[in-house]
Write the structure tokens for this entry.
Amino acid sequence: MQTSLPYPSIEQYLPHRLPFRFVDSIKQVDETSGEFSLLLEQSDKRLIDGVISPLLLVEALAQSAAAFHGIAKERAGAKEPESGMLVQIDSAQFLKAASSGFEIGLRIERTHELGALVRFKGAATQQDEVLVEAVFTVARNPEGDVGDR
Amino acid sequence: MEEMKTKLKDMIIEELHLEDLSAGSIDDDAPLFGEGLGLDSLDALQLAVAVEEHFGVRIKDESEGRSAFTSVTSLAEFIAKGQNTPSTMAN
């Protein structure tokens, strides 16, 4: 049965801190997908001329994937965190600019996994409109710090 | 089997953007990774996705991938076996 308890802080699952963290909260996570959110207020320093670079929304999706992976491992009983990094943007479509003051929904779905590489597809939406769609690959590094390969 | 190998070579060239190669220049039994075509782990993931999309056979883990991706011949044999085994077919 799905628990109704709120999810922990996103910072429990990500090493990123402001201003380089581009996901604010966890909405829902299941076995293969997750929904997260980001809110950029008008005064947010990450906006340039009131706009956030669409590439940073791809980064937001990648950070969402990282948090998803952390939650999945936690549910599987893992005690130690696992590092990883975005290694490839396989495809991306930038459809609409994001607006400040409205929540951005970040939805990711794990589609394939082979060894240390995991592929996700994701979409950033705002007020029911798709801003960015992307397919990207992340590399997990369960044995140590990023770069120990 | 020969037709499958040709299809696979065309798929490899297209999916991995190996525009300088032709199907005829890829040896059936040459290593796909390391020496031979010199593909890497990102290419392996892309090939796994392509095999599933084109042939409906899913590579379930890294060990299976290492075996299947040894050469074009091994990949063709893996796919042929997978297409005859309902449990390995992607949903």
About this structure: Chain B is about 55% helix and 0% strand. The mean pLDDT of chain B is 88. The first helix of chain B runs from residue 2 to 15. Residues 8 and 14 of chain B are 10 Å apart (CA to CA).
